[in-house]
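Incident review: delayed structure delivery

Summary: a single-chain prediction request sat in the queue longer than the usual turnaround. Root cause was a stuck worker, restarted by the on-call engineer. No data loss occurred. The affected request and its eventual output are reproduced below so the record is complete for anyone auditing the incident later.

Affected input:
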Amino acid sequence: MRSALRRGLAALVSLLALLTVVSATPASASASASASHRSQTIPTDKGPVAGATAGGVDQFRGIPYAAPPVGARRWQPPAPASAWSGVRPATSYGSRCLQSATGTGNGPGMSEDCLYLNVYTPARRTNRPLPVMFWIHGGGFSSGSGDLYDGSRIAKANNVVVVTINYRLGVFGFLDMPGLSKQGAGNYGLLDQEAALRWTQRNIGAFGGDAGRVTIAGESAGGHSVCALLASPPARGLYAGAIIQSGGCPSLTGAQATARGADYAKAAGCSDRTTGVACLRAKPADQLLAAGSGFVGGILSGPLPVSGGPELPLAPSAAIRSGRYTHVPLLIGSTRDEVRQWALPFAKATKKQYERAVRLEFGKQADAVLAHYPYSSYGSQYAATYAISSLWDDSSVFYGLGGCQYQNLTAQFAARQPRTYFYEFDDPHPPTTGTTPAGFDSGAPHASELGYLWPMATTKLLTPEQQQLSSAMVRYWGAFVKHANPTTAGQEAWPSYRSGKYMSLLPGADSQALKVEVFAARHQCSFWNSTDYGWLTTNPDVLAKRAGVPAS
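Output delivered after worker restart:
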């Protein structure tokens, strides 16, 4: 009954949207509009927005889903956006959230006023509401933005609606200090994501979407976010499926987060316990950003969601182990060589320095690790980099990414959710960004699959066989959003993890479902699953320095 009522309301909202378009667009203007680029107006709960159509997709950019988190709203849970009069243009992206990262192209500028989202929906829609893919960007909770992910291709190819979002980053999104706010300290960015999901529940019907069929998806920190949302009681009911790409379930305890907050306050010149919060609130945003290099940290020392409060009563990893999370269909996977590029601080390491680093990390288990990953097995000038990245990949010591712990995480999900699907992105030579040393083979590193799903600079570099894989992945992801099952006609069938299979994604038509034992053998999981060890807590450059490796 509730489902039928929801569909009826969605259809009514869609009809009202159509009437708005007809009344807002003169007949003469409609007749002269280009079929590939026309205006489009849609009502939302705060007022109508006018987007544009390009390439068969209606695009609505820069829609505010919450009030600007500035002034008194800095370090507070997101507040409702204000209504506007008239039609709000939605043809330009909203500002990116403040971040110190560079190399993000010529997109919008940065601002504290950054809580915006973007909607992509097929221009030709049926009367039936469409499934929704809700994308959360990565970037270590310190960089990135929704505008980097043009949802047009996924929307058009699969006849689904795509939503991409911004959320507060770094110290603005994940600072935890006593007295900062009554609720949400340390998790403002996570609360932003939940606010964007609630906006989607209220409004996506007007854009042709089905609020009852929202799949949350993300890569890297976006994948971490998806796991956190699965474990977050306030997010329950806001989604019906999940996709985790190269993301795990890491978090900080409240004690860890407040200790990091105290360090940040000291770096910002606000170390006095009685006046520290007021001191930080009085500082301009650019000064807060400039003081945050230590807070942002490195690959393994940046911001994370904070457990122990209403948003995350349990650490996400503990919630998954215990089953106290939202059980929805899940697509989860990683790249074959997640951390290889991150091991480049060992590019000049000798055999002795490599072995010293392993001993520093694994202690009593070091001899066994070295027996499974001997320096002599990697005949190259980058032997140490390949060796240490291989053992890091297989052991999943980077927040559980890839390898054996990742497979174990998938098994934990699958034990309670039969519609769990596992993959490994195995393209041996995907195009990557950035510079690498001459002769270095990056393999399939972290984030290398993104250009196969979203239009990016690397997408233009795909070979014909890689383009074929790209098209297949877009359809697999779309099938999962639509049916909670990635299998789609004309492509290799994708069995569930419970069937004992995972999908190896390869260029051309070579993707294939393999036995999970193949994955375990590739990553030496019989060894790692019998070894007592934890996640790596030292960033690669620091560990390399401690091992005596000269800087590259």
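Verification: The chain has two domains: 2-328, 332-546.
Action items: add queue-age alerting; document worker restart procedure.
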